Amino acid sequence: MARYFVFFILLISAAFPVGRGGAAERQRPIRIGALTDSWGPTPGVVGLRDGLKELGYRENKDFVVGTRFTQGDVAALPAAARELVQQGVDILFTSNPASAKAAQTATNRIPTVFTGAGDPIGLELIQSFARPGGNITGITDLDLELDSKRLEVFKELIPGLKRVLFSYDPSEPFAIAQAKVYRDTARRLDIILIEKPVRTEEQAQAAHTAIRRSEVHGIVAPRSLSANIPGFVLEATSRQRIPTMFPDVWYVEQGGLASYGAELHESGRKAARLVDKIIKGVKPAEIPVEVNQNIEFVINLSVAKSLGIKIASEPLSRANRVIR
Protein backbone atom coordinates (compact mmCIF):
# COMPACT_ATOMS: atom_id res chain seq x y z
CA MET A 1 0.00 0.00 0.00
CA ALA A 2 1.42 3.38 -1.00
CA ARG A 3 2.44 5.54 1.96
CA TYR A 4 1.43 9.04 1.08
CA PHE A 5 -0.57 11.51 3.08
CA VAL A 6 -2.43 14.78 2.69
CA PHE A 7 -1.17 17.38 5.15
CA PHE A 8 -4.23 19.56 4.81
CA ILE A 9 -7.27 19.65 2.57
CA LEU A 10 -7.48 21.91 -0.44
CA LEU A 11 -10.09 24.53 0.32
CA ILE A 12 -12.56 26.29 -1.97
CA SER A 13 -13.39 29.93 -1.31
CA ALA A 14 -14.74 33.09 -2.90
CA ALA A 15 -13.75 34.63 -6.24
CA PHE A 16 -10.65 36.79 -6.46
CA PRO A 17 -8.72 38.83 -9.02
CA VAL A 18 -5.74 36.95 -10.46
CA GLY A 19 -2.55 38.43 -8.97
CA ARG A 20 -2.42 42.00 -7.78
CA GLY A 21 -4.57 43.95 -10.16
CA GLY A 22 -5.22 41.30 -12.86
CA ALA A 23 -8.54 41.83 -14.64
CA ALA A 24 -9.60 38.21 -14.87
CA GLU A 25 -11.53 36.72 -11.96
CA ARG A 26 -11.82 33.15 -10.75
CA GLN A 27 -14.58 31.43 -8.89
CA ARG A 28 -12.15 29.74 -6.51
CA PRO A 29 -8.58 30.10 -5.20
CA ILE A 30 -5.61 28.86 -7.17
CA ARG A 31 -5.01 25.30 -5.98
CA ILE A 32 -1.35 24.42 -5.58
CA GLY A 33 -0.48 20.76 -5.07
CA ALA A 34 2.86 20.38 -3.29
CA LEU A 35 4.65 17.05 -3.64
CA THR A 36 7.54 15.92 -1.47
CA ASP A 37 9.27 12.79 -0.17
CA SER A 38 9.51 14.45 3.24
CA TRP A 39 7.47 13.88 6.41
CA GLY A 40 5.47 17.08 6.03
CA PRO A 41 5.59 20.53 4.44
CA THR A 42 9.20 21.36 3.61
CA PRO A 43 10.93 24.74 4.16
CA GLY A 44 10.42 25.27 0.43
CA VAL A 45 6.64 24.86 0.79
CA VAL A 46 6.63 27.30 3.69
CA GLY A 47 8.75 29.69 1.66
CA LEU A 48 6.33 29.45 -1.27
CA ARG A 49 3.42 30.34 0.99
CA ASP A 50 5.32 33.23 2.55
CA GLY A 51 6.46 34.47 -0.86
CA LEU A 52 2.94 34.48 -2.26
CA LYS A 53 1.74 36.45 0.76
CA GLU A 54 4.52 38.98 0.20
CA LEU A 55 3.24 39.37 -3.38
CA GLY A 56 -0.21 40.25 -2.07
CA TYR A 57 -1.96 36.89 -2.36
CA ARG A 58 -4.22 35.88 0.51
CA GLU A 59 -4.03 32.31 1.76
CA ASN A 60 -7.37 30.47 1.58
CA LYS A 61 -8.79 33.39 -0.41
CA ASP A 62 -6.47 33.74 -3.39
CA PHE A 63 -4.54 30.48 -3.08
CA VAL A 64 -4.43 27.23 -1.14
CA VAL A 65 -1.59 24.73 -0.82
CA GLY A 66 -2.24 21.03 -0.30
CA THR A 67 0.85 18.97 0.54
CA ARG A 68 1.30 15.30 -0.21
CA PHE A 69 4.31 13.73 1.47
CA THR A 70 5.53 10.16 1.25
CA GLN A 71 7.75 9.82 4.34
CA GLY A 72 10.92 8.82 2.50
CA ASP A 73 9.08 6.42 0.18
CA VAL A 74 10.26 7.62 -3.22
CA ALA A 75 8.37 4.80 -4.97
CA ALA A 76 5.08 6.32 -3.74
CA LEU A 77 5.72 9.71 -5.37
CA PRO A 78 4.33 8.87 -8.86
CA ALA A 79 0.99 7.72 -7.42
CA ALA A 80 0.80 10.78 -5.19
CA ALA A 81 1.52 13.02 -8.20
CA ARG A 82 -1.21 11.33 -10.25
CA GLU A 83 -3.73 11.85 -7.48
CA LEU A 84 -2.94 15.56 -7.31
CA VAL A 85 -3.48 15.73 -11.07
CA GLN A 86 -6.77 13.84 -10.80
CA GLN A 87 -7.93 16.23 -8.09
CA GLY A 88 -7.56 19.08 -10.55
CA VAL A 89 -4.83 21.20 -8.98
CA ASP A 90 -3.89 24.28 -10.99
CA ILE A 91 -0.15 24.18 -10.29
CA LEU A 92 2.21 21.48 -9.05
CA PHE A 93 5.07 22.44 -6.72
CA THR A 94 7.86 19.98 -5.93
CA SER A 95 10.77 19.63 -3.51
CA ASN A 96 13.80 17.45 -4.35
CA PRO A 97 14.65 15.77 -7.67
CA ALA A 98 12.54 12.63 -7.23
CA SER A 99 9.30 14.55 -6.68
CA ALA A 100 10.03 16.73 -9.72
CA LYS A 101 10.47 13.63 -11.89
CA ALA A 102 7.26 12.15 -10.48
CA ALA A 103 5.34 15.30 -11.39
CA GLN A 104 6.84 15.24 -14.87
CA THR A 105 5.63 11.69 -15.48
CA ALA A 106 2.17 12.51 -14.08
CA THR A 107 1.36 15.43 -16.41
CA ASN A 108 2.65 17.41 -19.37
CA ARG A 109 -0.22 19.86 -19.07
CA ILE A 110 -0.40 21.25 -15.53
CA PRO A 111 2.24 23.94 -14.85
CA THR A 112 4.92 22.59 -12.52
CA VAL A 113 7.40 24.59 -10.46
CA PHE A 114 10.29 22.72 -8.87
CA THR A 115 12.75 23.57 -6.12
CA GLY A 116 15.83 21.60 -5.15
CA ALA A 117 16.35 19.88 -8.51
CA GLY A 118 20.13 20.07 -8.37
CA ASP A 119 20.66 19.20 -12.04
CA PRO A 120 17.43 20.00 -13.94
CA ILE A 121 19.00 19.60 -17.39
CA GLY A 122 20.74 16.34 -16.51
CA LEU A 123 17.47 15.04 -15.05
CA GLU A 124 15.76 16.04 -18.32
CA LEU A 125 13.27 18.26 -16.52
CA ILE A 126 14.08 21.23 -18.78
CA GLN A 127 15.74 21.90 -22.13
CA SER A 128 17.69 24.95 -20.98
CA PHE A 129 17.73 27.45 -18.13
CA ALA A 130 16.68 30.34 -20.40
CA ARG A 131 13.86 28.49 -22.14
CA PRO A 132 12.82 25.45 -20.10
CA GLY A 133 10.28 24.18 -22.64
CA GLY A 134 7.28 22.05 -21.73
CA ASN A 135 5.24 22.68 -18.60
CA ILE A 136 8.09 22.85 -16.06
CA THR A 137 10.22 25.65 -14.62
CA GLY A 138 11.63 26.31 -11.18
CA ILE A 139 14.42 27.23 -8.79
CA THR A 140 17.58 25.14 -8.77
CA ASP A 141 20.37 25.14 -6.20
CA LEU A 142 22.91 23.36 -8.43
CA ASP A 143 23.42 20.87 -5.62
CA LEU A 144 25.80 18.67 -7.62
CA GLU A 145 28.26 21.57 -7.65
CA LEU A 146 27.66 22.11 -3.93
CA ASP A 147 28.43 18.44 -3.21
CA SER A 148 32.07 18.94 -4.14
CA LYS A 149 32.39 22.02 -1.94
CA ARG A 150 30.49 20.27 0.86
CA LEU A 151 33.12 17.53 1.06
CA GLU A 152 35.91 20.14 0.99
CA VAL A 153 34.31 21.99 3.90
CA PHE A 154 33.87 18.73 5.79
CA LYS A 155 37.59 18.01 5.49
CA GLU A 156 38.41 21.48 6.82
CA LEU A 157 36.14 20.86 9.82
CA ILE A 158 37.47 17.44 10.80
CA PRO A 159 41.24 17.13 11.38
CA GLY A 160 42.50 13.92 9.79
CA LEU A 161 39.30 13.22 7.84
CA LYS A 162 40.24 10.22 5.70
CA ARG A 163 37.37 7.74 5.48
CA VAL A 164 33.88 9.06 4.68
CA LEU A 165 30.66 7.05 4.39
CA PHE A 166 28.07 7.94 1.75
CA SER A 167 24.86 5.90 1.56
CA TYR A 168 22.35 6.44 -1.24
CA ASP A 169 19.46 4.89 -3.12
CA PRO A 170 20.83 3.57 -6.44
CA SER A 171 17.36 3.64 -8.00
CA GLU A 172 17.49 7.46 -8.04
CA PRO A 173 19.34 9.09 -10.97
CA PHE A 174 20.26 12.15 -8.92
CA ALA A 175 21.67 10.01 -6.11
CA ILE A 176 23.85 8.19 -8.63
CA ALA A 177 25.08 11.55 -9.93
CA GLN A 178 25.83 12.65 -6.36
CA ALA A 179 27.83 9.48 -5.73
CA LYS A 180 29.99 10.21 -8.77
CA VAL A 181 30.66 13.80 -7.64
CA TYR A 182 31.61 12.65 -4.15
CA ARG A 183 33.77 9.87 -5.62
CA ASP A 184 35.68 12.27 -7.87
CA THR A 185 36.04 14.90 -5.14
CA ALA A 186 37.20 12.33 -2.58
CA ARG A 187 39.90 11.17 -4.98
CA ARG A 188 41.11 14.76 -5.42
CA LEU A 189 41.10 15.39 -1.65
CA ASP A 190 42.84 12.10 -0.86
CA ILE A 191 39.76 10.82 0.98
CA ILE A 192 38.52 7.22 0.88
CA LEU A 193 34.81 7.29 0.04
CA ILE A 194 32.93 4.28 1.40
CA GLU A 195 29.82 3.91 -0.74
CA LYS A 196 26.78 2.04 0.58
CA PRO A 197 23.95 1.62 -1.94
CA VAL A 198 20.72 0.85 -0.05
CA ARG A 199 17.23 0.31 -1.44
CA THR A 200 15.06 -0.06 1.66
CA GLU A 201 14.70 1.59 5.03
CA GLU A 202 15.81 -1.64 6.69
CA GLN A 203 19.01 -1.71 4.63
CA ALA A 204 19.67 1.96 5.36
CA GLN A 205 19.22 1.44 9.09
CA ALA A 206 21.50 -1.61 9.09
CA ALA A 207 24.20 0.23 7.13
CA HIS A 208 24.35 3.05 9.65
CA THR A 209 23.87 1.18 12.92
CA ALA A 210 26.65 -1.27 12.01
CA ILE A 211 29.26 1.38 11.27
CA ARG A 212 31.73 2.38 13.98
CA ARG A 213 33.78 5.53 14.50
CA SER A 214 36.93 3.43 14.23
CA GLU A 215 35.88 2.52 10.68
CA VAL A 216 34.90 5.96 9.34
CA HIS A 217 35.84 9.51 10.25
CA GLY A 218 32.64 11.08 8.97
CA ILE A 219 29.35 10.61 7.11
CA VAL A 220 27.86 12.78 4.37
CA ALA A 221 24.10 12.60 3.92
CA PRO A 222 22.43 12.45 0.50
CA ARG A 223 20.01 15.09 -0.74
CA SER A 224 17.23 12.54 -1.21
CA LEU A 225 15.07 11.44 1.71
CA SER A 226 14.69 7.96 0.24
CA ALA A 227 14.68 5.16 2.84
CA ASN A 228 15.13 7.82 5.55
CA ILE A 229 18.88 7.74 4.94
CA PRO A 230 19.46 11.29 6.30
CA GLY A 231 17.53 10.33 9.43
CA PHE A 232 19.83 7.39 10.10
CA VAL A 233 22.86 9.59 9.42
CA LEU A 234 21.53 11.98 12.07
CA GLU A 235 21.14 9.15 14.57
CA ALA A 236 24.73 8.04 13.94
CA THR A 237 25.93 11.45 15.13
CA SER A 238 24.84 10.79 18.69
CA ARG A 239 24.71 7.00 18.85
CA GLN A 240 28.09 6.23 17.29
CA ARG A 241 29.51 9.72 17.87
CA ILE A 242 30.45 10.08 14.19
CA PRO A 243 30.78 13.56 12.66
CA THR A 244 28.11 14.26 10.03
CA MET A 245 27.63 16.69 7.16
CA PHE A 246 24.22 17.53 5.64
CA PRO A 247 22.90 19.58 2.72
CA ASP A 248 20.15 21.07 4.90
CA VAL A 249 20.39 23.12 8.10
CA TRP A 250 17.36 21.39 9.65
CA TYR A 251 19.47 18.35 10.50
CA VAL A 252 22.09 20.49 12.23
CA GLU A 253 19.34 22.04 14.33
CA GLN A 254 18.31 18.50 15.31
CA GLY A 255 21.81 17.37 16.34
CA GLY A 256 23.94 16.98 13.19
CA LEU A 257 27.42 18.48 13.16
CA ALA A 258 27.30 20.72 10.09
CA SER A 259 25.51 21.56 6.85
CA TYR A 260 26.44 23.25 3.63
CA GLY A 261 23.75 23.98 1.07
CA ALA A 262 21.12 26.30 -0.33
CA GLU A 263 18.70 27.99 2.06
CA LEU A 264 15.54 26.08 1.18
CA HIS A 265 13.01 28.60 2.49
CA GLU A 266 14.55 31.13 0.09
CA SER A 267 14.08 28.68 -2.79
CA GLY A 268 10.36 28.60 -1.99
CA ARG A 269 10.17 32.40 -1.79
CA LYS A 270 11.85 32.70 -5.18
CA ALA A 271 9.49 30.09 -6.60
CA ALA A 272 6.53 32.24 -5.54
CA ARG A 273 7.49 34.80 -8.20
CA LEU A 274 7.40 32.08 -10.86
CA VAL A 275 4.01 30.91 -9.62
CA ASP A 276 2.82 34.53 -9.79
CA LYS A 277 3.84 34.69 -13.46
CA ILE A 278 2.01 31.44 -14.22
CA ILE A 279 -1.14 32.71 -12.51
CA LYS A 280 -0.95 35.81 -14.68
CA GLY A 281 -0.81 33.74 -17.85
CA VAL A 282 2.88 33.22 -18.65
CA LYS A 283 3.68 29.70 -19.81
CA PRO A 284 6.30 27.77 -17.81
CA ALA A 285 8.19 27.09 -21.04
CA GLU A 286 8.87 30.84 -21.26
CA ILE A 287 9.86 31.39 -17.61
CA PRO A 288 13.63 31.03 -17.13
CA VAL A 289 14.86 28.69 -14.41
CA GLU A 290 16.57 30.64 -11.62
CA VAL A 291 19.39 29.68 -9.25
CA ASN A 292 19.17 30.10 -5.50
CA GLN A 293 22.62 31.40 -4.66
CA ASN A 294 21.85 31.89 -0.96
CA ILE A 295 24.20 29.24 0.43
CA GLU A 296 24.35 28.49 4.16
CA PHE A 297 27.24 26.98 6.08
CA VAL A 298 26.08 26.04 9.58
CA ILE A 299 28.03 24.43 12.45
CA ASN A 300 26.66 23.00 15.68
CA LEU A 301 29.37 23.73 18.24
CA SER A 302 27.50 21.90 20.97
CA VAL A 303 27.60 18.72 18.89
CA ALA A 304 31.27 19.30 18.05
CA LYS A 305 32.06 19.50 21.77
CA SER A 306 30.13 16.30 22.50
CA LEU A 307 32.11 14.54 19.75
CA GLY A 308 35.40 15.83 21.13
CA ILE A 309 36.09 17.91 18.03
CA LYS A 310 37.74 21.32 18.17
CA ILE A 311 36.64 23.36 15.16
CA ALA A 312 39.48 25.38 13.63
CA SER A 313 39.08 29.15 13.63
CA GLU A 314 39.09 29.52 9.84
CA PRO A 315 36.00 27.41 9.01
CA LEU A 316 34.31 28.75 12.13
CA SER A 317 34.78 32.32 10.91
CA ARG A 318 33.26 31.44 7.52
CA ALA A 319 30.11 29.87 8.96
CA ASN A 320 26.90 31.79 8.28
CA ARG A 321 25.49 30.49 11.55
CA VAL A 322 26.90 28.81 14.64
CA ILE A 323 24.63 26.85 16.97
CA ARG A 324 26.00 26.84 20.50
Brief digest:
The chain is of the alpha/beta class and 324 residues long. The protein has helices spanning 43-54, 77-86, 97-106, 143-157, 173-188, 201-209, 229-239, 249-253, 264-279, 301-306, 313-318, and strands spanning 5-6, 16-17, 25-26, 30-36, 63-69, 91-95, 112-115, 136-140, 163-168, 192-197, 218-220, 244-246, 258-262, 290-291, 295-300, 321-323. The relative contact order is 0.14.
CATH homologous superfamily of the largest domain?
A: Response regulator
Radius of gyration: 20 Å
CATH topology grouping of the largest domain: Rossmann fold
Largest sheet: 7 strands, mixed
Q: Any idea what the shape is?
A: globular
Q: Which sequence of strands runs across the widest sheet?
A: 1-5-4-6-7-8-14
Mean pLDDT reading: 91
Looking at the overall shape, the CATH architecture of the largest domain is 3-Layer(aba) Sandwich
Task: Determine the structural class based on helices, strands and strand pairing.
Answer: alpha/beta
Order of helices and strands: EEEEHEHEHEEHEHEHEHEHEHEEHHE
Please give the count of helices: 11
- Roughly what percent helix? 25-40%
Beta percentage is 15-25%
User: How many separate domains make up the residues?
Assistant: 2
First and last CA, distance? 43 Å
Which spans of ≥5 residues are poorly predicted at pLDDT below 50? 1-24
The tally of strands reads 16
Supply the CATH class of the largest domain: Alpha Beta
